[in-house]
Design goal:
The structure holds two protein chains of two kinds.
Chain A (H helix, E strand, L loop, with lengths): L1 H41 L2 E2 L7 E2 L3 H9 L3 H32 L4 H13 L2 H11 L6 H8 L14 H11 L2 H12 L3 H9 L4 H29 L3 H11 L21 H11 L3 H25 L9
Helix pairs in contact in A: 1-13, 2-13, 3-7, 3-8, 3-10, 4-8, 5-11, 8-10, 9-10, 10-13, 12-13
Chain B lengths: L5 H13 L22 E6 L5 H17 L3 E6 L4 H10 L7 E4 L5 H7 L6 H6 L4 H4 L2 H6 L9 E13 H6 L9 H11 L1 E3 L2 E7 L10 H5 L19 H16 L3 H8 L11 H4 L2 E7 L1 H8 L6 E4 L16 E8 L6 H13 L1 H11 L6 H4 L11 H8 L14 H14 L6 H19 L1
Parallel strand pairs in B: 1-2, 1-3, 6-7
Antiparallel strand pairs in B: 3-9, 4-7, 4-8, 4-9, 5-6
Classes of the chains: A mainly alpha, B alpha/beta.
């Protein structure tokens, strides 16, 4: 009898736990699990959004990897942005955060100045950058030429379009600056004092005191940065569109990735395949590639996180 | 997260990554309705016009219909993009459109082949209307796919040549060019160098030069995009080779790709007052009929001339043709009021007075042969050029395809590679591009 009561109690406890978790579980099932399973399912189907889906085996996968001309350039661009843009954003965000925590007067003004660009709507900000960096009429190019530096083509040059996008991302560094500032202000002052007493240089204080203390935040910045970059859509699309001067109109097809596919990213392909070509199966293949890539990056970073925690070195 | 297990890390990574995936699974369309159009009913009409003057014109068009059909009321929904329309066509329902209108002809192939829009041929037949004698030839072509006429034209766009009459006079050119040879000569004469750039460019030939796209150029060569089996004719129809060659020659003769692109980057955008044709920076411009109103509104310091685009020297007899596209309208397969919807579609696309009034208000080309000749059309005398291009039986369009405008984008992308010298062997490039188009179409089937 006592055993039955215990089992019953455990069951009730389990049910109660499930009941408390149910809002999250329902949300997870509806918004995460179902789309994921559907995406895998549709990647093996021929589905145009109108007729019922039909089994197509690996046809969509073969098409995307072997015949779709935009896939490999988009993958290369996405990886470039993940490696270069994310790294620079983290380094720059940390640098600005450190600088502002060191400033004694006018901190509020500088915080505001650096944070404000982050609040700019991405479409407006990208358009403004495209006009500022216009190789013919933009003020940046005019200034560079006045001081004798040949201005690059920026968004009109395939070699400069991704660096220009990186500049745009660095301009909107406010989000990272704020979280790095919070982390830096949280580092115990006694540790710096002890390090100074031991004769540690500025670099050594950063390496052995600051970095170990803020390493969870660095990890957070890198992981969210990678995921955001995997989803990078608006800025490259708008930059390419404004720089190309070609507007989608009646009877025309928008050219993705101007100039020369250099601003093409994987999320743009999901839109192109799904909503312009009505090929939802292939769009799902690209979505799954994004899923696998982001999972691999995140798992790799999680495993390597120990490398940032240098306290024990 | 010290001490986090590998499994937990992977689980966390998976959770974070799942957020990247978002796909929409929607219901299927069903069709079939036998409503009585003479009974009191309300239909939904979704269209893409958004400017105040445009929506006012649409409302006037609808008011005319409701006056003629007092039992059918129209609920008008403006500013509907193609994405929203596509979604509604899939889901259906009481609030979904019975009649849609789209600015692009790109989706006609998909709308017809998927059955998202109903075939209008039985409706035309029932009412004794022959689309072949009602609509201009090119408009007939872009509103159907594989014999399924799932859309009808609702005003159109015709492309021609705008030229700076003052610059022409200064250069000693008396008339607009009629052949591409004359065009080349005039473009060079009209080009005035300024250092490494230009103070005036005769013509911006680059494919990114606003409306100088491959399909707009090539219409003057009357190309056949697909053979009878539905395969791309890009490598077999000499019209394409001639078109690509002409454009490349213009690029080379007018300063080369790099110089032209550098100049292009300094010019105003297509839809602003500082469009280079308005400012006199470019003396000739390939463009649609809407440019006339925009150019006049910008108050340029020169006289604007309008003419058809030139034709190849060996097709001089066909001078007057051009590229045609336009807005399309159709009836949703999910609609249960298809007969009432047809009455509306019939009125807005075939009633001469309705089409003429709508054209006068929107400033697009009328989409019926009768309306094109109507004395009630009000327009600047120069607009007549576009009416003639639209009515010209030699004018062409780009046909509907099952995967939308993908083949046009593929051709255009090849054009970019050819004009900038990335691809040197035109024949091999055309063959490869044709194969890509065929592969894309096979994937869509």
């Amino acid at each position: 009898m006592a055993t039955i009561t215990l089992a019953s109690k455990r069951r009730r406890s389990a049910l109660r736990t499930l009941a408390f978790m149910s809002p999250w579980l329902i949300g997870f099932a509806v918004f995460f699990a179902y789309p994921l399973i559907s995406t895998v399912y549709f990647s093996f189907m021929h589905y145009d959004g109108f007729k019922p889906p039909t089994w197509s085996g690996t046809k969509n996968w073969t098409y995307v990897f072997e015949h779709y001309p935009y896939f490999w350039p988009a993958l290369r661009n996405t990886l470039w942005l993940v490696l270069v843009m994310v790294t620079l954003r983290v380094v720059f965000g940390l640098g600005v955060g450190m600088l502002i925590t060191k400033i004694k007067t006018g901190t509020g003004v500088f915080r505001t100045l650096f944070y404000l660009p982050y609040l700019a709507p991405p479409v407006a900000a990208t358009m403004a950058f495209a006009f500022l960096l216009n190789p013919g009429t933009g003020p940046v190019s005019s200034i560079l030429e006045k001081i004798g530096i040949p201005a690059p083509g920026w968004f009109n040059d395939p070699n400069w379009s991704k660096p220009a996008l990186t500049l745009l991302a660095l301009w909107g560094i406010g989000d990272l600056m704020v979280i790095f500032m919070a982390a830096l202000l949280d580092v115990p002052q006694e540790q710096y004092e002890a390090a100074e007493l031991d004769g540690a240089s500025a670099w050594q204080r950063f390496r052995y005191v600051t970095l170990p203390n803020i390493s969870p935040i660095v990890m957070f910045a890198v992981v969210t940065g990678v995921i955001q970059t995997m989803q990078y859509y608006t800025q490259p699309l708008i930059a390419g569109k404004v720089a190309s001067g070609v507007i989608q109109g009646a009877g025309t097809q928008f050219e993705p990735g101007y100039p020369d596919k250099s601003t093409l990213t994987l999320p743009q392909l999901v839109y192109n395949l799904g909503f312009q070509r009505f090929d939802y199966g292939s769009a799902c293949v690209v979505a799954l590639v994004l899923f696998v890539l982001s999972m691999v990056f995140t798992a790799f970073l999680m495993r390597r996180r120990g490398g940032l925690n240098l306290a024990g070195d | 997260m010290p001490g986090m297990s590998r499994k937990a890390a992977i689980a966390l990574a998976a959770s974070a990554s799942i957020a990247l995936l978002a796909t929409a699974c929607t219901g299927q369309s069903s069709s079939g309705a036998s409503d009585d159009a003479s009974k009191d009913t309300t239909i939904n009409f979704w269209h893409a016009w958004s400017a105040a003057s445009e929506t006012k014109a649409v409302n006037a068009l609808v008011a005319g219909f409701e006056k003629a059909h007092p039992d059918i009321h129209v609920n008008v929904v403006a500013n509907m993009t193609d994405d929203k329309i596509n979604q509604a066509l899939r889901t259906g329902g009481d609030k979904a459109p019975d009649v849609i209108s789209s600015f692009t002809t790109n989706n006609v192939g998909k709308f017809c082949s998927s059955g998202a829009l109903v075939d209008l041929n039985p409706f035309f037949k029932k009412d004794g209307i022959d689309p072949e004698t009602t609509f201009p030839k090119a408009m007939n072509e872009y509103t159907q796919f594989d014999g399924d006429r799932c859309t009808a034209p609702l005003l159109g766009d015709a492309y021609g040549l705008y030229y700076n009459k003052t610059a022409f006079a200064k250069a000693g050119i008396k008339n607009p060019p009629r052949t591409w040879s004359e065009f080349e000569t005039d473009a060079k004469k009209l080009t005035i160098a300024k250092g490494d750039s230009y103070s005036q460019l005769g013509f911006m030939p680059d494919y990114h030069g606003w409306e100088t796209t491959t399909e707009h150029y090539f219409a003057q060569f009357s190309p056949t995009y697909f053979d009878k089996a539905g395969r791309s004719s890009l490598a077999t129809d000499p019209a394409f080779q001639a078109g690509f060659t002409l454009q490349k020659k213009l690029v080379d003769e007018l300063g080369g790709f790099k110089k032209l692109e550098t100049y292009r980057a300094t010019l105003g955008d297509e839809w602003g007052a500082k469009h280079p044709f308005h400012t006199g920076q470019v003396a000739m411009q390939l463009d649609g009929e809407w440019r006339l109103g925009m150019a006049l509104a910008a108050k340029p310091k020169f006289d604007i001339g309008v003419a058809p685009l030139p034709v190849p020297d060996d097709q001089a007899g066909q001078y007057g043709k051009g590229y045609i596209t336009g807005t399309i309208t159709g009836i949703a397969a999910t609609s249960h009021k298809q007969n009432a919807a047809w009455e509306f579609v019939k009125y807005i696309t075939t009633n001469t007075d309705a089409v003429v009034n709508f054209s006068n208000a929107i400033h697009n080309v009328p989409s019926t042969l009768a309306a094109l000749k109507s004395p009630n059309l009000t327009y600047d005398p120069r607009f007549k050029t576009f009416l003639d291009i639209a009515a010209n039986p030699n004018s062409t369009t780009s046909p509907a395809s099952i995967n939308g405008g993908v083949y046009l984008a593929t051709i255009q992308n090849f054009g970019y590679d050819y004009e900038n010298g990335k691809v040197g062997d035109l024949k091999a490039g055309l063959k490869k591009t044709a194969a890509q188009i065929d592969t894309d179409i096979a994937q869509a089937k």
